[in-house]
Design brief:
single chain, 315 residues, alpha+beta, 4-stranded antiparallel beta sheet, 8 helices, DNA-binding
Length: 315
DNA sequence: AAGGTTGTTGGTAT
DNA sequence: TATACCAACAACCT
């Protein structure tokens, strides 16, 4: 379940292997996984992106031929591969998407791989493959097919609805924290009646938080996940935003989170969950702060882990 | 074997 | 008009 730290880990790995590489061929195994913005590529100008129709494999492969990867960006949980000639590929991994890089015959890669990393690729979860002039190959695998790639003019990227509405990045330098917090506070105060967990999962309020870092940051902040936003003070919200950044930094340092078979770009495991997670998937274990038993409940339609002693709900 | 799991969208209710 | 809530999406796991 890639959240901000996992997507940033993927971004970093892809950057190392792909920037400067030229695409020689694209193979689309599942047409719904690769969509095309049919707007004319208006070099330099930004146009309203068209809806993304399916069944454009031929057109997509034709456009990608001989394009070079110039830059790889991330915004929230979205990846953006900027190519030459004003084209970009926006990518969302959703729950099970992976970006795996391989050179011919070698067992190295980047991304958020699961079992398929150690198997031969492409496998049955491979939806798209890009071949590069050097012999390197990028595989977009996605077991559940919720993820997508979108090929579009670079200037239209910012108008992808999810990006257009996306809240501030939580991982900012110290000197930018005040403005990030101001935007976060303004956003979250428009959702006073919802639970705090639901609010921080909302990408329009703050970018990049998913189920793991929601539970971990709320535990760090001693806030019960079901607490209504209205009941939480500005000061406590500020502390929560700081803790979101803290748990994400810890995770980045550990190479991200995964429950199984995670191997990152240099072959090491991403073991945030084992090393740092205090509550996520630790139900029935003692709280590391007070010793009470971690519970699992449902909040905002999600499995939610918390300590019933140090995260008391104020009603 | 039915229900849970994940992130986002889109429909409906408030 | 804005916000709240939840089913749907696909495939696998328990």
């Amino acid at each position: 379940m890639p959240e901000l730290p996992e997507v940033e880990t993927v971004r970093h790995g892809l950057e190392k292997f792909l920037v400067g590489e030229k695409i020689t061929r694209a193979v689309i195994f599942n047409e719904k996984s690769f969509l095309l913005d049919n707007t004319e590529n208006s070099q330099g100008k930004s146009a309203k992106p068209e809806i993304f129709p399916e069944n454009n494999a031929a057109k997509i492969t034709q456009i990608l031929e001989n394009k070079e990867v110039v830059k790889i960006r991330r915004r929230g949980k979205m990846l953006i591969l900027d190519l030459s000639e004003n084209w970009s590929i926006a990518a969302h991994l959703k729950m099970t998407g992976q970006m795996v890089v391989r050179s011919s015959g070698e067992n190295w890669g980047a991304g958020h791989p699961n079992e398929s990393f150690v198997a031969d690729l492409p496998d049955r979860t491979t939806r798209v493959a890009l071949d590069f002039a050097s012999g390197t190959r990028l595989f977009f695998n996605d077991q559940r097919k919720f993820g997508w790639l979108k090929l579009m003019p670079t200037n239209n990227i910012a108008q992808i609805p999810l990006l257009e509405k996306m809240g501030p990045e939580p991982l900012v330098d110290q000197e930018n924290f005040a403005s990030t917090y101001a935007i976060f506070l303004k956003n979250i105060r428009r959702h006073q009646k919802t639970s705090i967990k639901s609010a921080i999962l909302n990408q329009e309020i703050v970018a990049g938080v998913g189920n793991i870092y929601a539970d971990e940051s709320l535990w760090s902040s001693k806030i019960h996940p079901a607490t209504k936003v209205a009941k939480i003070s500005d000061t406590a919200l500020k502390n929560l935003l700081k803790n979101i950044a803290k748990v994400m930094r810890e995770s980045l340092a550990a190479g991200g989170s995964t429950m199984k078979n995670y191997v990152n770009a240099d072959g090491s495991r991403g073991d945030y969950l084992e090393k740092f997670a205090k509550v996520f998937r630790r139900e029935n274990s003692p709280c590391p702060r007070c010793g009470a038993t971690i519970q699992k409940i449902r909040v905002a339609g999600r499995g939610t882990h918390f300590c019933p002693k140090c995260q008391i709900e104020r009603k």
